[in-house]
UniProtKB/TrEMBL annotation:
Species the sequence originates in: Bacillus methanolicus PB1
GO molecular function, one term: transmembrane transporter activity
Location (main, coarse): membrane
Entry membrane topology: Multi-pass membrane protein
Any single Pfam family the record assigns to this protein: BPD_transp_2
This protein's UniProt keywords: Cell membrane, Membrane, Transmembrane, Transmembrane helix
PANTHER family referenced in this protein's UniProt entry, alphabetically: ABC TRANSPORTER PERMEASE PROTEIN YPHD-RELATED-RELATED
Annotated protein name in UniProt: Ribose/xylose/arabinose/galactoside ABC-type transport system, permease component
Length: 327
């Protein structure tokens, strides 16, 4: 009986992946198309210069890291709206630990620990009290944002430790930004976890059919707890990267990032309903948003025009992917 139920869980997952294959392919084409368009139209403005391309990587690193973790959360059929606020608070707690004299290790423990603690709270409320993750994380988003504003009275906390700033944002190893190394390292780890381990299969099974996954022996509550801890961890790290790059902790870091993070994940091919996830697609989705932002800024458009065009491009890309799915 147990084997039969497991087959029922596993088989739909395979068919869903096949259905979404065209959608992922179209998103990759959209990314290449956007890149080619800006390369041609903004060639004289230096869009294709090494410096500008590396700047896009720096600008999207924090979004990419949080999006990697969000891929697991959305793959389970849940969502986390608190990542931006967690990043802001983590940047402040890390900066305060450094300012107090606890050193780089103390700053890292404070920043990442802040993210893990909030991720734990989110996970407990979702799994133990059965509160919808949308409502839980919407609430913690506001509470954490308020806390970040309160603990320093909205004042920034400067970081004068040059080693911390080098490691967590502003440093370059030769021509390679440290932020690119952080991004590649965690992208590889996330891809292996999702595609090559039993944990990844359980994540997808939980999102694909939670009831059937339970009957097949998957501890879905444990899986959901772990993915929320994951988003807390990565948001905490993103906060440290914000602080290292800007040489300060600020309550305003991460403002609105939750929308960019979710857009990158969905744009990359992860199903909002759960059951299908792709780390590579998430990275491409994040880079696509970064390229669009960078290109529109170079074109000299004001903020309102950038928001309109960026939104239309994202909607069009996702719509084309969904059209391919229905064929």
């Amino acid at each position: 009986m147990q084997s039969k139920v497991f087959n029922e869980v596993k088989q739909p997952s395979i068919s869903v992946v096949k259905k979404f294959e065209w959608r992922n392919y179209i998103v990759y084409l959209a990314f290449v198309g956007v890149l080619i368009y800006f390369s041609i139209t903004l060639f004289d403005q230096g869009f294709l210069t090494t410096g500008n391309l590396l700047n896009i990587v720096r600008q999207t690193a924090t979004i990419t890291l949080m999006a990697l973790a969000m891929t697991f959360v959305i793959s389970t059929g849940e969502i986390d709206l608190s990542v931006g606020s967690i990043a802001a608070l983590s940047s402040l707690t890390g900066a305060l630990a450094l300012q107090t004299g606890y050193g780089i290790l103390g700053g890292v423990i404070a920043g990442v620990g802040t993210g893990l603690l909030i991720g734990l709270v989110n996970g407990v409320l979702v799994t133990k009290l059965a509160i919808p993750s949308f409502l839980v994380t919407l609430g913690t988003m506001g509470a954490v944002k308020g806390m970040a504003m309160w603990i320093t009275d909205t004042a920034p906390v400067p970081i004068i430790d040059s080693n911390f700033n080098f490691i967590f944002g502003s440093g370059d190893i030769g021509p390679i930004p440290v932020l690119l190394i952080w991004t590649l390292m965690f992208a590889i780890i996330a891809h292996v976890l999702l595609q090559k381990t039993s944990f990844g299969r359980q994540v997808l099974a939980t999102g694909g059919n939670e009831i059937a996954a339970r009957f097949s022996g998957v501890n879905t509550s444990r899986i959901k707890m772990l993915v929320f801890l994951g988003t807390g961890l990565m948001a905490g790290l993103a906060g440290l990267l914000y602080a290292g790059r800007m040489n300060a902790g600020r309550f305003s870091f991460g403002e609105g990032d939750e929308l960019s993070v979710i857009a990158a994940v969905i744009l990359g091919g992860t199903a909002l309903a759960g059951g299908v996830g792709t780390v590579i697609g998430t990275v491409i989705g994040s880079l696509m948003i970064g390229v669009i932002n960078n290109g529109l800024i170079i074109m000299g458009l004001d903020v309102s025009q950038q928001m309109i065009i960026r939104g239309l491009i994202i909607i069009l890309s996702v719509a084309l992917g969904r059209k391919a799915v229905n064929r």
